[in-house]
Amino acid sequence: xxxxxxxxxxxxxILAIAIAIAAVxxxxxxxxxxxxxxxxxxxxxxxxxxxxxxxxxIIAYGNVTPWRDLNLAxxxxxxxxxxxxxxxxxxxxxxxxxxxxLDDTDYRLALAxxxxxxxxAELSRADAKALRQAxxxxxxxxxxxxxEARIARAQRDLxxxxxxxxxxxxxxxxxxxxxxxxxxxxxxxxxLGAEKAEIRFPVxxxxxxxxxxxxxxxxxxxxxxxxxxxxxxGRLKRIEKRVDEQTRVFPxxxxxxxxxxxxxxxxxxxxxxxxxxEIPGRPVENAVRIPQSALHGENxxxxxxxxxxxxxxxxxxxxxxxxxxxxxxxDDGDRVITTRxxxxxxxxxxxxxxx
Length: 355
Known about the structure:
With about 350 residues, this protein is an alpha+beta fold. The protein is about 20% helix and about 40% strand. The radius of gyration is 44 Å and the shape is elongated.
């Protein structure tokens, strides 16, 4: 008679056999060798500090404007009988060049009548002096003076029938045409003084302190298009003694003489052009430039010291062109980390690239 386990004990027997087999397999497997895995340190770049005089160039942008902006107005009344071909928007006119001539008939008549009145007054004065009539002499003297004043006014009005350019200028607008009747005070056009050009550049208060208004250096102005870069040379004219209420910057005025003279500048500098200025400033003593990206917060940097990061505060004088000008907080030989990691903290271990 065969022996059989009770049905209730069969699962327990199967489980015991499985445990025994697993124990044998575990005891018979080869022993694993322990390995140590070294985590590589983050690699960073560093700039070795060397303090010294640092030249400063202030970069600013502005529009070219004329140094004079004048509305031409008629000083007498009359019909326009002649208009210069050059009296058109955009044209260049020279000082004293005629632009318009008005009908001068009435003014020639007024001048003739004034001269006739003067002759009559002088004759009356001569008669009074010959007859030794003191009262009549005094009256005649007054009539002569009045006649001379009327002649001066008539001559002025006659001269004003011809409108001339008061200085070298570019015609901006022209508002009258041949045959039009104009009255005294009526606007005839607008002209822009071409003898000089001015550009107002916004400069911060920190940068203004670096400008030498008494001994200004030449300023390079440039305008770049897709295919061409043009340059001109200007000079510092003045630093305005006021601050823009909205932007809180100082307007710095740069002047370019004879801007439309292509022979002088290589190419004409036209009004309205947007230009970039490189304004030289006084060198900053005992300073150094570092990449602006090396700053953490407003004025902190990380140094590489004995394989670790050390955080240090520095004094930044100005930012520009992707660089920070540091005037204190860094010593010669310090190595400033210029690589930005996702996580950086004091005491963090790092390796320098190529060291």
